[in-house]
Input
Amino acid sequence: MLHCTLLAVGAVKESHWREAAEEYLRRLKPYMKIEVIEVGAEAFGGTKTAEQSMTAEGERILKRLPAGAIVIAMERTGREISSVELAEMLTREGGTGTHLVFVIGGTAGLDTAVLARAQKKISISKMTFTHEMARVFLLEQLYRAATIIAGKSYHY
Output
């Protein structure tokens, strides 16, 4: 069974996004072991720069990455992949039992140290979304990929 972690900066505050994320987590249970880990977001503005914010968040992220895991950074400049390509990646990278960790950054993005640790960088879209939206979109795509792998009709 696939083992995935979604490591995200910040909590989901809006109830509609939280409910959507919970729905996809529920749907994923038959297909994979999945957990969500949240690390604290760092405010910026005034005397604190976006880079300082990303560095502080990055340190928190790096401390939570399990040894031996394949880290996949959700990054706006990452490679855009299709749902089928995501399913193929899950099968190829996680099919042998390797722990896959998807990382979603905070408002300013991901620190360079986190990006350097990531084996893969993928993008949901060229558009920018809130971290809450990105979390739901990623969970939906993980569910879609799992159903593709299982040969279910959800994708079609």
